[in-house]
Every structure is written in C-alpha cells, then in structure tokens.
Write a structure and sequence with these properties.
The chain contains four helices and 17 strands. The chain is mainly beta. The strands form three sheets. Strands 3, 5, 6, 8, 9, 10, 11, 12, 14 and 17 form a ten-stranded antiparallel beta sheet that branches. The chain has a four-stranded antiparallel beta sheet with strand order 1-2-7-4, with no helix packed on it. The radius of gyration is 18 Å and the shape is globular. The N and C termini lie far apart (58 Å).
Length: 224
C-alpha cells in the first residue's frame, strides 16, 4: 500500500494505491473516488457490541467500509468532512488515542476499539476516544492544519481540548484550567489538557467547536 497526501494542509486528499487483493478500512463517507477494479465491503467490524462501542463512545460510524482491490490492484482517494489536513501515522505494535471524528482510514493490521478510557475523559473528548492499536498505517484528519509535537521523557505540554487530535496511548494525561479561577472564566480558554512525554501528539490549528460557536449566532431566529 502506497499513500500520497495531496493539497496539504487546507484541503488534503489521500491517494491510496492498493496492491492486488489488498484492502483498507475507511470511515463512512470518506471516499472521494476509486478505480473501477476496487469494490467496497460494508459491515459492522468486530460484531454488534464492538461496533456499538465505536459509534456511541468513539463517535465513529456503526458500519465500516473496506475498499478491496481486484487482481490488478487499484486506487482509492479519501478526504475528511471538514477542510483540513491528513497525516499518516505508522504504528509498530503500538497504540494511539484519536479524538471523535478524526479517524479516516487504517490498514488491516490495526484494530479499532472504543473503551471507557480515563485518558480519553481527561482529554475532554467525552468518556472515550477511539483507540487504534497494532501495526500498520493509520490516517488521521483534522480541521485546519496539523502540528506534530514530540515530547522528551518527562517533558510536559499543554493543549486546548478542542485542538487535540491524537496522542500516543502511553502518554500521561491530566486536565487542568487555564491559570487561576478568574482566568478560567474570563479568558475564554476553558479547560486544557497537560500531556507528559515521551511520545507524539497531533494538534489541529482550528477548533470545530469554535466554528459552531461562531455559526450559531449568525443563524436567523424565527420571530414569534
């Protein structure tokens, strides 16, 4: 499998070339185009309860699409819902926690699960985040550009919860406020998450929640 990411960082498109009979798992609705030789298999991967967990706790689709190349191979192109970036993360018997809605695609060697994760809760993404574990290529998307940060052992780094996209599952996570009580309520920053190295994390330059907060006041209200 060869992956080429075009048009970074604002309108990224992942062009995936599959070897004969190779397949890739992609989030529902991510497909832009594909070769005529490529077919789709749609199923609840892992059974009913695992699929429900990904949908309810991880914010992903109940059904997963698997794009399968024919005997001659083929091409699939994928893109996220929001204008933004795509990053390829190579897992080597390791795990990443990915925020709701940022999973785009993965190879067969990667298992997707959604667990009641204390780290996911602390990261401000609800009670759980999607866990990608195993070996292979993982595609993660963002709203806006992606910034990769690598922390040394013991190094700490603070990220706004709405900008945190993914981080290594082995990293320590703590939720904290911005400054004191006054700053928390008046700064407009809300809660942040403190991550401790070693490990990698990915941050998006734009916040979907900030976009929602901007749009809602612009929507005309019905008059009584």
């Amino acid at each position: 499998m060869q992956i080429d990411i075009k048009f970074k960082p604002s309108y990224s498109l992942a062009i995936i070339n599959l070897s004969p009979n190779e397949r890739i798992r992609a989030d529902s609705g991510a497909m832009v185009s594909h070769s005529a030789s490529v077919e789709v298999e749609t199923k609840a991967e892992g059974g009913l309860f695992k699929s429900l967990g990904r949908a309810v706790l991880g914010g992903e689709s109940f059904f997963q699409n698997f794009w399968v190349a024919g005997p001659q191979g083929g091409e699939v192109t994928l893109a996220p819902d929001l204008p933004g970036d795509i990053v390829e993360i190579n897992l080597d018997r390791s795990a990443f926690l990915v925020q709701s809605g940022s999973f785009l695609a993965s190879e067969n060697g990667i298992e997707l699960d959604s667990k009641l994760s204390l780290k996911g809760f602390k990261a401000g993404e609800g009670i759980s985040m999607l866990e990608a574990r195993g070996s292979g290529k993982l595609l993660v998307s963002s709203y806006g550009a992606l910034y990769e940060k690598t922390l040394a052992p013991g190094e700490k780094y603070i990220v706004d919860t709405s900008h945190l996209v993914a981080f290594e599952a082995s990293m320590e996570v703590q939720t904290r406020s911005v400054g004191g009580l006054k700053s928390t309520f008046l700064s407009g920053e809300g809660l942040v998450v403190e991550l401790s190295g070693p490990g990698r994390l990915y941050i998006q330059s734009r916040s979907p929640q900030a976009l929602i907060n901007w749009i809602i006041p612009q929507v005309p209200q019905k008059s009584n």
